[in-house]
Amino acid sequence: MTYVIIAIAVLVVAGAVLLIVRRRRNRPALTSPARAAMPEVLVGELAARPSLEAEAPAPSLAQRLATSRGVFDRVRSMTGVGAVSAEQLDVVEEVLLRSDIGVVTTGAILEELRKNGAPDGVAAALRRILLDSLRASRSVVTTADEGRVPVWLFVGVNGVGKTTTIGKLAQRHVDEGRSVVLAAGDTFRAAAADQLQRWAERTGADIVRSAEGADPGSVVHDALGRAAARGADIVLADTAGRRANSTNLLDELSKVRRVADRAPGQVVETFMVLDATTGQNALSQAREFLAAAAVTGIVLTKLDGTARGGIVVAIERELAIPVKFVGVGEGVHDLITFDPVAFVDSLLEA
Amino acid sequence: MFDALTDRLERLGSSLRSRGRLTDADIDEALGEVRAALLEADVELSVVRAFLEAVRARLSGEVLSQSLSPGQQVIKAVHDQLVEVLGGSALKVTYASRPPTVVLLAGLQGAGKTTTAAKLASWFKQQGRQPYLIAADLQRPAAIEQLRVLGRQIGVDVFSEPSDPVDVARRGVAEATRLGRDVVIIDTAGRLSIDEALMREVREISDVTSPHYTFLVIDAVTGQDAVHTAKSFHGVLELSGIIVTKLDYDARGGAVLSARGVVGRPVVFASTGERMADFDLFHPDRMASRILGMGDALSLIEQAERTMDAEVMAESAGRMMSGTFTLDDFMAQLNQVRKMGSLGGLMKLMPGVTKEMRTAASNVDDGELNKVEAIIRSMTPRERREPVIIDGSRRTRIARGSGTTVSAVNQLLKQFTEMRKMMKQMSGGGVPNLPGGMGRMAGMAARAGAARAETLPPGFEALGAGMNAGAPSARGGAKNKKKKGGRVTPPKQR
Questions:
Q1: CB pair distance less than 8 Å for B488 and A4
Q2: Digit-coded pLDDT (tens) for B369-382
Q3: Which residue pairs from A102-105 have beta carbons closer than 8 angstroms and sit at least 24 positions apart in sequence?
Q4: Which residue of B49, B115, B249 is the best one to mutate when testing the A interface, meaning the one whose CB has the most A CBs within 10 A?
Q5: What CATH number was assigned to the domain covering residues B101-292?
Q6: Out of B141, B207, B334, whose CB is closest to A6?
Q7: Matching CATH number, A62-133, of 3.90.950.20, 3.90.1300.10, 3.30.590.10, 1.20.120.140
Q8: Do A190 and B150 touch (CB under 8 A)?
Q9: Interval A53-94: pLDDT, tens
Q10: Is the pTM of this model over 0.95?
């Protein structure tokens, strides 16, 4: 099958070349690709810069979300008992869509509301449905079988905050009295290992790293060896960010997981790190990473911004992967345990 | 990326195709589909509403066209509106009359600013400029180191010092002026739009460096929050444009529409992969065509022109037309293809390629291409010229020599033979018989130089023609061609 693709690609390019050749022939006077002309757009645009002084103070959280608060106030004021009206459903739909819960899950929730009605008001019914979607256990495993070293593996797409999350969790483990070994398994991104190294220094964790471009599996393997030799309590293994629609990258991840799960290691948790600003693509990320690396939990990062991260509701409903930690800032302690009630309330009332 | 949207619009197109005229009910139904598609693509709710209103205005204001079927008319209206929202035409990058031209990058954490900074520098270098990078991200551990490594890879100097981001930026620009660099790119720390202190800081950086361009770097997988982010950054920095990253994810990229719709600034660059080459100017009109499933042949041709060795290609193209294409030529072309970037990226640009093929192509990695090369290199020169002489024992030898299996060798030879067959047809002027929508591509390219068709967007006629010919979707089109051309089968395994 690979060959088919390659053959097609070559054909395509060959076709493109043919066209170029023909075009060139038709237009022999073609000069070297001219540099883009330079209309003076720049100056005009600079003049339009807003002045910092005149700027109103940054709006407060409440103001920023005023629109959606207005919407939710409308939901809460819907006191109608029993059947939910079409207009009410529209408002609920808007609230859910704006929280990034996603089209499909929103549809399902609306359907539930329509079918079961809202005996104690729409807001309460909606809150109940959302909380019911977040019922999975959120306990984390920190111990492995006798003689094995527990491993937490971190996976995710590029730029979601895997390395930072590991740094914060290292601090958490250290605070709880465990000795930690970090495995710098992101050997792809430039200076990723340096970034993790800083976290190791900051938290007092041990780190095993290798050269850029090294095999991530071997880094994890070495980290396990070190952890076993020193009697460390837990290994936190970083991996390179990867898009979730590439079989090769996911296969590589499966391999890292296999290596980490081999004695003396034992993978007790695999976290998918997810950026709260992510839209519905998060669902396919979760699906792919679940299949490739048996994800056991989600770390939802950057929840201190304006994004609500509602897509985790869809993920838990559909794939039963619970959110276990939430990142709420850049400080080393800004990682907290996920609380469904607080989360749902922030979705609805923010 | 915009696949779901494309699928929906294709379905929409075929369901309206058969009807004679467009009633209000038709418009409502069509817009309902468009709404669902946009929401699934993560376009922000208020942007969706505005978009639908605009499309409705287009449809109801317009006299029913004689030459377009109702379905085509809806698609055309959606297409035109997409082009309008996405920014009309590509932004022409211009340079300050007194160098250096200063470019400031800002955005949320993890949007890809540092990588983008390097890619942008590499792009400017390709334009014949001397870029200079300033690492003003002192927040994230090792961000400077990351930019340094990338800078080394692309041969661009990186300025930084462990002081204060504003100072770093100011001194960096001064240093660039001293060194006579004509483009300066400032990478800043990721920041949340609600972090007042950090927003003030980036504004100060902007004040002391007076950038000619301020770009917001935004992640294509962003959901509804794209609007918040774009608005806040625009309010503080007066953006000149948007750079969208991670367009190679299977996200539908609605964030592009949202951010664009809210700040009214064009999307200027798009990043479509991890390699430095996977980065280019964003072409709104082409993107709109892509959304509508018409491929993006123009980008493909341009990319080919930019990266390929014309002499090598012309030579083998000549042999191709005369039907004496050899495995050596195949290998030469393959190497040219690899220079152009990832296969997945290329397939996305190609019109008439099905989603499965695109996914499959994005899974072909360097290792497999290496394997192909190894197989060909394990052949003798004569075998490469005349693959027919390769018998069983030669096959075994080649497989052993290349560290592959006999069946891999067989497959390669089979594909090669079929390819050669197709090439003969191609050179015989049989453009309509080309596989995978290449006929369409040729049509588009032919039209590219010519004036735009008055009523239709580029490539639109081809789509319409395909639909009328009973090939309602790109997929159907590919199948039809398979019969005619005896071409390679689209992969079904995954």
A1: yes
A2: 888 888 999 999 89
A3: A102/A279, A102/A280, A102/A283, A102/A310, A102/A311, A102/A314, A103/A280, A103/B36, A103/B39, A103/B40, A104/A314, A105/A313, A105/A314, A105/A317, A105/A318
A4: B249
A5: 3.40.50.300
A6: B334
A7: 1.20.120.140
A8: yes
A9: 333 333 333 343 344 445 556 565 555 556 677 888 888 898
A10: no
